[in-house]
Amino acid sequence: MEYKSLSEYTKQDYKNIPRHVAIIMDGNGRWANKQGKMRILGHKEGFKAVKKAIKFSIINNLKVLTLYAFSSENWNRPLLEIESLMELFSFSLDSEIKNFKKYNIQFKVIGDITYFNKKLQNSICNAEQKTVNNSGLILNIAANYGGRWDIIQSVKKIIKKVQKGILDANKITENTLSQYLSTSKFLPVDLVIRTGGEKRISNFLLWQIAYSELYFTDVLWPDFNQYIFQDAIKSFASRERRFGGFKKY
């Protein structure tokens, strides 16, 4: 299925549209349980929802779409489910490269991928390398990612620079730390969407979303579509972002 093949995906006009949207894709397992199916089938349906989110992002000219695919805490899930997820991730990457090229999508992964098997690591590196020069939507997948891990690895890099005399410890600022995060090359996160009904961040982009707008929906991720995405954008467009300042009357 191609990213622009559905006629109902029409561009919406908003006065204020986010440039970078991050989504916590929650509810695959519960969706499968409600259907009386295996959890992995919920993840497969969730992949279809990913494609819908990508389509919407392209049509509405979003710059970056970050998807929380696998957290550093997800290793606590049953081994069979983890292995099936890894296979699905690898297969999806290999099969989607043609669409990434066709629609000018730059694919990126943030997180510690060294924990993944070699097959998946190779699929990730291949997809990143083949799309590195694409200038359209940046599709950023958070895999084996945790917000605390991201901050810690940033701090470690800064410490090494200080030890080598490259950085002055007394001149380290918030901006310094931001430059060493895994998202340093991306635009700031404007909007975070979480599906599945839970109202928490779950160790996702902890530093980066300090002033992001949050949108929660009870819809389980496999049921996520362009209309729900549109509702989130409408909600964002109606808000006044003050970044710690005061309301203008």
From TrEMBL:
Transmembrane spans: none
GO molecular function, one term: ditrans,polycis-undecaprenyl-diphosphate synthase [(2E,6E)-farnesyl-diphosphate specific] activity
BP terms from Gene Ontology: cell wall organization; peptidoglycan biosynthetic process; polyprenol biosynthetic process; regulation of cell shape
Cellular component aspect of the GO annotation: cytosol
EC number(s) per entry: 2.5.1.31
Positions of substrate binding: 27-31, 39, 43, 71-73, 75, 77, 194, 200-202
Catalyzed reactions: 8 isopentenyl diphosphate + (2E,6E)-farnesyl diphosphate = di-trans,octa-cis-undecaprenyl diphosphate + 8 diphosphate
Catalytic site: 26, 74 (proton acceptor)
SUPFAM superfamilies cross-referenced by the UniProt entry: Undecaprenyl diphosphate synthase
Sequence positions that bind Mg(2+): 26, 213
Keyword Transferase included in the entry's annotation: yes
Cofactor note: Binds 2 magnesium ions per subunit.
Cofactor(s) this protein cannot do without: Mg(2+)
Keywords: Cell shape, Cell wall biogenesis/degradation, Magnesium, Metal-binding, Peptidoglycan synthesis, Transferase
The protein's assembly and partners: Homodimer.
Function: Catalyzes the sequential condensation of isopentenyl diphosphate (IPP) with (2E,6E)-farnesyl diphosphate (E,E-FPP) to yield (2Z,6Z,10Z,14Z,18Z,22Z,26Z,30Z,34E,38E)-undecaprenyl diphosphate (di-trans,octa-cis-UPP). UPP is the precursor of glycosyl carrier lipid in the biosynthesis of bacterial cell wall polysaccharide components such as peptidoglycan and lipopolysaccharide.
Family listed: Belongs to the UPP synthase family.
UniProt name for this protein: Ditrans,polycis-undecaprenyl-diphosphate synthase ((2E,6E)-farnesyl-diphosphate specific)
Organism, scientific name: Buchnera aphidicola str. Ak (Acyrthosiphon kondoi)
Lineage, highest ranks first: Bacteria, Pseudomonadati, Pseudomonadota, Gammaproteobacteria, Enterobacterales
